[in-house]
Design a protein that fits this description.
Largest sheet: 4 strands, antiparallel
Radius of gyration: 28 Å
Structural class: alpha+beta
CATH class of one domain: Alpha Beta
Number of strands: 9
Length: about 270
């Protein structure tokens, strides 16, 4: 049986009782330091902390009910499991049984999601970099203003790109007319890559592109999308993803069973 109390607007909390084991408000407040609180929701960290401690209590109670006595394992140089960490690991190993992952399911996922398994795209691109730190609003505004002036000039004559890169770019590529040579997916920051993907070959970005490095004017000179990788080359990655999902689902179901059989007061309706 589960007795649950939920107060979503609370910014403080009271004790939580899990099968006659009391988790004090002070313990919950200390644990809350490990949980982020979204802006405007000051009580969410406390509620997350209470649920985390309640889940831990249930796992330890089950491990002791099963009379488990695992030896703590070494976790790294100078770091070993605590006795409670070893108990939690042991009860999860004993009770969480993820569903098996079939080869057919892995192959079907690959077939249904080919874009997720492409080789890197190859680009040839050029840019003009106007440096402006993210935390310097004035420098950003000045760089954006300059970029719009340069874009207006390029709208009149795209052939001016080499000259403008040489005169204005802070990148070493300025000596080559802003040309970056061949780059592949992942070589650049996400905003720059998104700009390349949005352009037609030969097109100059109609608007400035901002990244953590500053403000860019971008030109795409060539793009060669990578081929879809064959199933055999990505099968281990797909299987690992399915196995992680299966384990997470099984662990959630195991905890839900513990909650359903428990007497808990002071929490919301789920852990």
């Amino acid at each position: 049986m589960v007795t649950l109390i939920d107060h979503p607007s609370q910014t403080s909390t009271s004790d939580v009782i899990v099968n006659d084991q009391r988790i004090t408000a002070a313990e919950i407040a200390a644990e809350a330091q490990n949980h982020a609180a979204p802006r405007g929701e000051p009580g969410s960290a406390l509620r997350a902390a209470a649920r985390a401690l309640a889940a831990r209590a249930l796992l330890l109670q089950e491990a002791r009910r099963m009379q488990l006595s695992p030896a703590p394992r070494k976790l790294g140089p100078g770091r070993r499991e605590t006795d409670e960490e070893a108990l939690i690991r042991a009860v999860i190993e004993a009770r969480v049984e993820p569903a098996s992952v079939s080869e057919a399911a892995c192959r079907a996922f690959h077939a249904a999601n080919p874009e997720r398994f492409r080789a890197p795209t190859l680009y040839e691109a050029a840019h003009v970099l106007l440096p402006a730190p993210e935390d310097n609003a004035l420098a950003r505004a000045q760089a954006l203003s300059t970029a719009h002036v340069l874009l207006a000039e390029l709208a009149r004559s795209a052939d001016a790109f080499d000259r403008l890169a040489g005169e204005h770019s802070a990148c070493s590529s300025r000596t080559a007319g802003g040309r970056l040579g061949q780059i592949v997916t992942g070589d650049t920051v996400a905003e720059f890559e998104a700009a390349l993907d949005s352009l037609e070959v030969g097109q100059i970005s109609p608007d400035p592109v901002t990244t953590r490095y500053g403000v860019h004017i971008v030109r795409l000179d060539a793009r060669a999308p990578g081929d879809v990788l064959p199933y055999e080359s990505v099968a281990p990655r797909i299987r690992e993803m399915f196995e992680k999902n299966a384990w997470a689902h099984a662990a959630k179901a195991f905890l839900a069973d513990l909650v359903a059989a428990a007497e808990i007061t002071g929490l919301g309706r789920t852990l």
